[in-house]
Design goal:
single chain; mainly beta; seven-stranded mixed β-sheet; four-stranded antiparallel β-sheet; globular
Length: 127
């Protein structure tokens, strides 16, 4: 059974850092692109970042470029989202998602491309 489990969320002050993890099981991890999405209260879920199946390609939303870094360790079946210089507007529930992405370039950036989702982890940026 395919499973994605996020962890690493919490409460942090503006300007602080968090590292989210997305641990995967139940599928051939190397064949899947992984995306991070977030949803703030009252807002639609939006894309944050994605990484190709091999890790050689990454993409970021304009709002997080230069502050967030996505990476993956296929041996550990885990994707990370390092979040630095956090702002109150980064407050949201963060979700990781996966989709088969073998033989295709890049990684998908839109929600409907992803068929498998984790349960989410809350990130709150507040003083």
């Amino acid at each position: 059974q395919l499973q994605l489990v996020e962890s690493g969320g919490g409460l942090v002050q503006p300007g602080g850092s968090l590292r989210l993890s997305c641990a995967a099981s139940g599928f051939t991890f190397d064949y899947y692109a992984i995306g991070w999405f977030r949803q703030a209260p009252g807002k639609e879920r939006e894309g944050v970042s994605c990484i190709s199946s091999g890790g050689g390609y990454t993409n970021y939303a304009d709002s997080v470029k230069g502050r967030f870094t996505i990476s993956r360790d296929n041996a550990k079946r885990t994707v990370y989202l390092q979040m630095n210089s956090l702002k109150p507007e980064d407050t949201a529930v963060y979700y990781c998602a996966s989709t088969p992405w073998v033989g295709a370039r890049g990684c998908p950036t839109v929600l409907h491309e992803y068929g498998y989702w984790g349960q989410g982890t809350q990130v709150t940026v507040s003083s």
